[in-house]
Amino acid sequence: MPRENKTKYAVLGLLAYAPLSGYDIRRIYAQSLGNFWSESYGHIYPILKRLEAEGLATREVERQTGRPDRNVYSITDLGRDELHRWLAQPLDPIRERVEMLLKLFHGWEVGPAVMIEHVKQTRAEHEALLQRYAHYDEAMSGEDDPPTPYWLMTVSCGQHVSRAYIEWCDETIAKLEQLPAEPRAGAKGWTHVYHKHQEANA
Predict the structure, then answer these.
(1) Which terminus of the chain faces fewer neighbouring Cβ atoms within 10 Å, N or C?
(2) Alpha carbon of 193 to those of 94, 147, 175, 178: distances in Å?
(3) How far apart are CA 34 and CA 26, in angstroms?
(4) No. of H helices and E strands in the chain?
């Protein structure tokens, strides 16, 4: 059975806040949702068309002088019911795909120098994220809009994750710097660990 596209609900949730165009949704993604729920911008417009076709959203064309017409989408009662149904469902198990960790796992093939650069890049990205989160905190502090405390909780999660990543990056770089500079081809050690794991779980 194919996995459900959860971005449908990300878009529905935004429409529950306010009527939005595809451009509006792309802008909000870039400023907030994209920090923890990545999606190709090219997929947003087909999702909006799907929501309309399923009766979960309606579309109104706003005429604009000197610019292309603007398609504005609004959530329907059926769409809000579907959003509430999904919000109440249990979470799917966490399945992360972190390229840096995948490369680090196999890093013994090329040696520590390459891996150090990857970890430094990850550290820099999380430093930049912390600056962005601080901006969100400042911009939303004092707002009494109902969604604000929920949004700030997601910002707080991002801050905790980025701080933990930065601490891990510093720790990992220090460990990598202690390893032999030359690659160490061969997986004898991993085979040993794998068999020990198998025996422990037999």
Answers:
(1) N
(2) 25, 48, 20, 22
(3) 9
(4) 8, 3
Taking only the tens place, the pLDDT of each residue in 128-163 is 999 999 999 888 887 788 899 999 999 999 999 999
Determine the Cα–Cα distance for residues 113 and 115; give it in Å rounded to an integer: 5
- Domains of the chain as residue ranges with CATH: 7-88 (1.10.10.10), 99-200 (no CATH)
CA gyration radius, the chain: 23
Which residues have CB under 8 Å from 90's CB, separation 6+? none
DSSP for 136-196 reads HHHHHTT---TTHHHHHHHHHHHHHHHHHHHHHHHHHHHHHHTS-SS-----HHHHHHHHH
Question: Which has more pLDDT, 198 or 141?
Answer: 141
pTM score over 0.90 = no
> 124 vs 104, 120, 131, 161, CA distance in Å?
17, 6, 11, 14
- Which residues sit opposite 59 in a β-bridge? 73
Q: Maximum Cα–Cα distance for the chain, whole Å?
A: 72
Chain centroid to Cα 116, Å, comes to: 24
